[in-house]
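Note to self: user wants both folds in one dump. Writing first protein now.
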Amino acid sequence: MKKLFLFALAAIFLASCNSNKTENSADNIAGNDSTEQIGKFQVYDLDGFKLHVYNSNDDMNDASFIVEGDKALVVMEYPLFKDNAVEFSNYIEALNKPTVTDITDYHLGGSGKLPITMPEGMPAFIKGHVYDGMMKGFAEAFGDAMVELPEQETIEVPFGKTQQWAGVDFHFEPGASSDFPAASIIIGNQVYYTHWAPAEMHMSPLQITNAAAVDAELAEAKKSLASGCRYFIGGHGGLAGKKQVEFKIDYLTKVKQLLSANADSDKFSKALMEAYPDLLGDAEALAQALYSKK
C-alpha cells in the first residue's frame, strides 16, 4: 500500500507540474537569451558574479542554475533528464571555468562525479522512503530518459551557516517549515533561492497541502521579501522579481481569508476564482488539497 501511495504521489507531482508549466515573468529584468534546442538559458549580471538560469522545459518545470564567479562556477539543482543534463553540461563546459560544487537543495540530478553540497537534513531525506518512492515513480514514468543519480558522499551545510564558493557567499537558512528539508539560500546577498519560485498563478497543491502550509509559505514569502534580494529563484519555475513575491503574499493572505469564510472546497474554489478570474493554475486542485486535511 505504501508503495502505491508513493507512486501516486509522483503521478500527482507530474500532473501538477504539467498543469502549472509556465515561465515566470520578472518585470524589468533584462536577461540575455541564448538559443537552445531543449531548454532555455538566461544570464543576469549581478554585483560580483553572473547568474545563469536554465529553464529545462521538462515535464516537471524544473530549473537549474549556475553561479559564475571570476575564476570558478557553482551549479545548483542539476537536471534530472538526460537530454537536459547533456545540454547543461555542454553549457558549463563552454564557460571554461572549474566547477567547485553542485548544490542539491531538493532535486538530485545527473551531476556525475561533481562534489555535492546539500542543506541540513537533505542527505537523510534523499535516502528515505518518501524521496525514494518519488524517484521510483518517475523512473516508471520516464524510464531511460532519466539520468543515473550520483552516489558520492555529500557535504551537509547546517542552517544558519554561510559558505563561500567561487568568491560568492551562499547563506543557508531553513525554507518554509512545510517544505523541510528544502532550504532557502541567499546568494551573494542578491538572489534568494527557494524550492518553488514565486509566480503569479494559483499555487500547486503539492506546495500548499494544508492550512499550516499556507501559514508556512506566507511567513517564508515575507522573509524573502525582507531579505533585500533583487531576484528570487526556485527549482520549479526559474526566476522571478519582487512583484511575484508581493503577489504571493497577497494571494496567500486571500487564501487564509477564504479558508475561514468557506465551509467546503467547492465554495472556496469558486470564491478564489472570483478573486482571481484570469489567473493560471488549478484552483480546484488546491481547494481539494486544503479541505481534505481540514
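First done. Writing the second protein, which came from a different request thread.
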Amino acid sequence: MARKEDGMQFEIHPAPLKDEQGNNYVYVRPHCWTHRTMEDIDAYCAQHYAMRPGEMTRALTVFRQMSKVWLAWGDRLTTPIGTFAPKLGLRSPKTMADRVGGDDVELQSIEFQPLKEYVEEVDEMANGFRPYEYQFPADILNNKDNLEHALRQSIEANGGYSTVHTFQMFSHLSKHTARKTLDRWCEEPRPRLMRTKMGNMFIYTEV
C-alpha cells in the first residue's frame, strides 16, 4: 500500500490505562506544526478574503467585550462555528442541595461546543489522517548525532543563532525539553552555546 502523503498528521502516545495483559492503551492527538496567532489570522484573511488588515482582530475584540456580558448572565451564545456557555462548579464537594449558597459556586470555564456542520467541514478539509513518525523524548536525547544535526539546522534557519522554538521544531522535542537541552549546552566548564536575552525570548549562539 502506498504511503499516504496528505491529510492531518497524528501522534500516537501511551495512555496510563492498561489492558488485562498489562499493555498500555494508546491515544492519538494531532501533530501541531505551527501555533497560529491573531497576526496570522489577520494576514490570511486579508490575503484570501479581501478583509482589511486587522479587521478580524477588531471583530473578535468586540465579540469578547459583548459576549462576556451575556455569559455572565448565564446565557448560551450560538455562533456560526458553535456555542459558548458558562461552566459552573462547586468550590468544595457538597451532598445537601439546601446548603449550597452563592459563595459555594464558581465559574470554572467557558465551554465551546462546535456545530456538527463545522466539525464535518474541518474533517472534509483535513482529507484523512496519516501518522507522524513520533520519537519518544528519551530516544531523541540519546541520539547525539540527531541532536547535533537539529542544532545545526536551527542555527542555519535563523541565520546564525538558535531559539527554543526552532530547535524544538527540528529536534521534535517538547518545548520544555528543548529549552533544557539548549541550556545544558550553555553550562560550564566547556559551554557549547551562549544564551542571550533578546526582547521576550532567549537566543543561543555558538561559543
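Dump finished. Worth passing along: The longest strand covers residues 8-18.
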